[in-house]
Every structure is written in structure tokens, then in C-alpha cells.
């Protein structure tokens, strides 16, 4: 089984990376192709950077809780008093606080101010942080700020003389195959240099909402976390963070936070001690091939708006559930996961242009971004409705039994008063609805981006789609709490 680790917490073992350059043979009558070579040797580059890379050691006080069971001995046995005294003393000693230490890497980005960058997981929950320099100097560090979403921490030390520092380069210019060099503290072996290439870009390893990692085959192991990944000019284009490995040691699949992502976070942590990200106020989901077809899109792209936060920037600008965000602030939105990063990197309070696809037409909206809410906001439940008693209307469609949303249905399925639409009273086994995880208690709010208020409305909309030769119907569903999601259902003849 292959596992994903933060480089700080890896097990034993070192991976080897084999590098080879293939030179094409010349063809008769044709010029020989030019072979691009990597650096033959990098001692001058490495020597100039080693003093700016640091080892970071941390200490944390934890309370060990150990309870050793007392052996069962006969009452009055001569061993009873001995065991009572021995095990009571062992359990008491086991409860004493103890010091836990760990190691990581980092690098100096401002030698005059003593600013050091590392990973958040390297220093998380530490009581003491010591920065160890290449010349043997040790300085205590304070934390200026941390960001768990990108796993970045900024530290400050107080040097007596200016420190050697390094500068960021542009990770956006890095191409797959470009040579890179990592320096860090693997397994406590400080000042270790490894080389490799950029193996891939824009990797999503499911570690956070803004994943956009550079992948490299330069050896990264336990203790490399927080260390720099350099380009051939000696500029930091990444912060080494994690590896994939079946054994815990390097197998040539490592990940680094790109400098393009890190620089903005670091600047905010230095200025404010916290991040200040843009906030749009929407809940989004992926535009799958089925959803794209149901919306009449030529290809799956953009981010589908599944919900709009009440009183948020998106609502004020007129964004609606069912809109597909195609462009944000002049940038194309290729997939759902690209939009959160674009929004987060945009200045709070800036008015941006958002292009959405709405019912087959592109609509341009102006949105003034707010600040991302980090804390969960408690939702207050609105009270009651006054529905007139009326005969309950029912229909069966696409494996769903549809019904009016009555007070009895709200009570049965715990559906809040502000949820409006058509109730899914039952789902047939083996139906297309069951395949898409539609379940009894869901509420159909829209069909093909048209609001529905009765089972007949749903049937009419599906029949309309059939006449338009659509292969699927896009339903906007709500659960009992009002959380929305889009579900495409195949239209069966």
C-alpha cells in the first residue's frame, strides 16, 4: 500500500534517484538534434546556498499516560505488598510529563530581520523552537504566523550580524523536466544536497483546499520538511513538504509548495500574523461530463455553483445556483479546484469580473470580494410556515416517487421550513436515481435550472428536455438542512 507522508514524519530508508541523458543518433543527411544537458556539477551553486538553509529542532512537553495493570495474586500473598508498591510507583512515574523532540528544515528569506520560513507541521504545538545554522550557531525562534491550509510557518530569530539569505523565484515558469536542487536536514544529517527534476506540476494530493504542488524526484526524506527547492539560478521555487512512499523513505516522488503560492501567504504572515484571503461566498462542485451535457456545454470546464451564501459577495453580485463560473478576474477557470485558489489570491475588497454560463448564455457579473470566514458560523433556524391543507399530489419519474412538500413530510424527513421544492418520497432500487445517490427526503429545487413547485412541474421539465433530445436532466437537490447539490440523471425512454 502506498502512503502519503509529511516529510517530517517519514520512516527509515533512503531512495535512490537514477538520472540519465539520452543522446539521439544522427540521421544520414540530417543535422543531429541538440541534446539538452543538465548541470555537470553544482558545487559552486550549493556552496553559496548552504548557509541560508537551516535545521529546525523543536521540543514539546507531553504528559505520558501509562497504566500498568496489577497482576492478580491471592489475597494476603507475600507478593501482594511488593506488587502494590512496585506498580504504584511505575504508574506514578509514567504520568510524569516528558519532552518530545523533532527535527525539520527551513531557510532564511530576510537576513537583516532574521526571518525564517518552514512548514507549519514542523513547529506545530512546539514549546521551544531552535534554529540551527550551518556554522554551528543556534538561535531561539518565535513564531510570527502559521497557515494550516498551505502548511507554512514564518519564524523570527534575533541575529547579532546579518544572516545569509535566499530569494524566491517564479515557480510559474518552471517546466516539467527542469532541473532542481533540494537542501535540507534528512534524518538529522544537516546540509544535505540532492538534485532531480520537476516531475509534474499542479498536483492535488488532497492535503488542503489550495493544493497546487510541484512534484520532484529530488530525494526528500524525514527532516526535509520546510526546506527549499531551488532552480538552477539558486532561487527558491518551492518548499519541500511531503512524499509518497510505501516504506516511508524516498522513492523519488516528493512534493513542494510552489513559490507562487507561498510568497503571498508568507507576506501576509509577516505583516498580520495571519492570512487574509479573498472570499466569494459560494459552494461549488465539479462540472462532470454528464453535467456539462445536461447544461448544453461543449466540454466540461469551470466550477458549478451549488449554493450561494446568504448576504455574501456572490449573492450581492447576483450569482445563482446553477451558474457555471468560466472566468474569474480575467483568468479562465479550467476546473472546480482552480477557483478557490484564484479567489484566495485576490485582494480583499477588489471588484472583479466574473463570467458565468447561465441557461446557455454567458453573463458578466461584478463581484466585490469579502474576507474568507475561517470560523464556522452557527446557522439560526427560521420558524414556521402556514401551508393550506390540500390533497397531496404525486408522480413517479426516473425511479423517484415525487410528492408535494407538506408539514407531515417536513416532520418525517426533518426538512427545515425554508427549504422549498418537490419531495422525493421514495427511490426505486436499481433506478438511475439510486445510482446517483438520490434518497428519500431529498427535495428537488430545480430541473434544468428552472424552479419547480409540484411533481407535475418536474414531469413537465423532463418532457421538455426529451423533446430537445437531451440525454440527461440536471436536478438541483436540497437535503433537509438546505444544503444544495447538482445531480444529473439519465433520461430513460
TrEMBL record:
Subcellular compartments: Periplasm
EC number of the protein: 3.4.21.107
Name of the protein: Probable periplasmic serine endoprotease DegP-like
GO cellular component terms listed in the entry, alphabetical order: periplasmic space
Broadest EC class assigned to this enzyme: hydrolase
Species this chain originates from: Stappia albiluteola
Example of a GO biological process term: proteolysis
Binding site for substrate: 121, 151, 223-225
MF-aspect GO terms: serine-type endopeptidase activity
Matching PROSITE patterns: PDZ (PS50106)
Residue ranges occupied by any PDZ domain in the UniProt entry: 269-360, 374-480
UniProt-listed SUPFAM superfamilies: PDZ domain-like, Trypsin-like serine proteases
Amino acid at each position: 500500500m502506498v502512503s502519503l507522508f509529511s516529510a517530517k514524519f517519514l520512516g527509515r530508508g533512503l531512495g535512490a534517484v537514477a538520472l540519465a541523458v539520452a543522446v539521439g543518433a544522427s540521421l544520414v543527411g540530417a543535422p543531429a538534434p541538440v541534446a539538452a544537458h543538465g548541470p555537470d556539477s553544482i558545487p559552486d551553486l550549493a556552496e553559496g546556498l548552504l548557509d541560508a538553509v537551516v535545521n529546525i529542532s523543536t521540543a514539546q512537553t507531553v504528559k505520558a499516560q501509562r497504566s500498568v495493570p496489577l497482576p492478580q495474586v491471592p489475597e494476603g500473598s507475600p507478593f501482594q505488598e511488593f506488587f502494590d508498591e512496585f506498580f504504584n510507583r511505575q504508574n506514578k512515574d509514567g504520568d510524569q510529563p516528558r519532552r518530545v523532540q523533532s527535527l525539520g528544515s527551513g531557510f532564511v528569506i530576510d537576513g537583516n530581520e532574521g526571518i525564517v520560513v518552514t512548514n507549519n507541521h514542523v513547529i506545530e504545538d512546539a514549546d521551544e523552537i531552535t534554529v540551527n545554522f550551518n556554522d554551528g550557531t543556534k538561535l531561539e525562534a518565535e513564531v510570527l504566523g502559521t497557515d494550516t491550509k498551505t502548511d507554512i510557518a514564518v519564524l523570527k530569530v534575533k541575529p547579532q550580524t546579518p544572516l545569509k539569505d535566499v530569494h524566491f523565484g517564479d515557480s510559474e515558469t518552471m517546466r516539467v523536466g527542469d532541473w532542481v536542487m533540494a537542501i535540507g536536514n534528512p534524518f538529522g544529517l544537516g546540509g544535505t544536497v540532492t538534485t532531480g527534476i520537476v516531475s509534474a506540476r499542479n498536483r492535488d494530493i488532497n492535503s488542503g483546499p489550495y493544493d497546487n504542488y510541484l512534484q520532484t524526484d529530488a530525494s526528500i526524506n524525514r527532516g526535509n520538511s520546510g526546506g527549499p527547492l531551488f532552480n538552477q539560478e539558486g532561487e527558491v521555487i518551492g518548499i519541500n513538504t511531503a512524499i509518497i512512499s510505501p516504506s516511508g523513505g524516498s522513492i523519488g516522488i516528493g512534493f513542494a509548495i510552489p513559490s507562487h503560492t507561498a510568497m503571498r501567504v508568507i507576506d501576509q504572515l509577516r505583516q498580520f500574523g495571519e492570512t487574509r484571503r479573498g472570499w466569494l461566498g459560494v459552494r461549488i462542485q465539479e462540472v462532470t461530463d454528464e453535467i456539462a451535457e445536461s447544461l448544453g456545454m461543449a466540454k466540461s470546464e469551470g466550477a458549478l455553483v451549488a449554493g450561494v451564501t446568504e448576504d455574501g459577495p456572490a449573492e450581492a453580485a447576483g450569482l445563482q445556483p446553477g451558474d457555471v463560473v468560466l472566468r474569474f478576474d480575467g483568468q479562465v477557470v479550467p476546473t472546480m479546484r482552480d477557483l478557490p485558489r484564484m479567489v484566495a489570491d485576490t485582494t480583499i475588497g477588489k471588484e472583479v469580473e466574473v463570467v458565468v454560463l447561465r441557461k446557455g448564455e454567458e453573463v458578466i457579473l461584478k463581484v466585490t470580494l469579502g474576507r474568507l470566514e475561517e470560523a464556522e458560523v452557527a446557522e439560526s433556524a427560521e420558524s414556521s410556515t402556514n401551508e393550506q391543507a390540500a390533497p397531496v399530489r404525486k408522480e413517479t419519474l426516473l425511479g423517484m416517487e415525487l410528492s408535494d412538500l407538506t408539514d407531515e413530510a417536513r416532520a418525517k424527513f426533518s426538512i427545515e421550513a425554508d427549504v422549498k421544492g418537490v419531495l422525493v418520497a421514495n427511490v426505486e432500487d436499481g433506478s438511475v436515481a439510486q445510482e446517483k445517490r438520490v434518497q428519500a427526503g431529498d427535495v428537488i429545487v430545480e430541473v434544468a435550472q428552472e424552479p419547480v413547485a409540484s411533481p407535475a412541474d418536474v414531469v413537465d421539465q423532463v418532457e421538455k428536455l426529451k423533446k430537445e433530445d437531451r440525454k440527461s436532466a440536471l436536478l438541483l437537490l436540497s437535503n433537509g438542512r438546505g444544503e444544495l447539490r447538482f445531480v444529473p440523471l439519465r433520461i430513460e425512454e
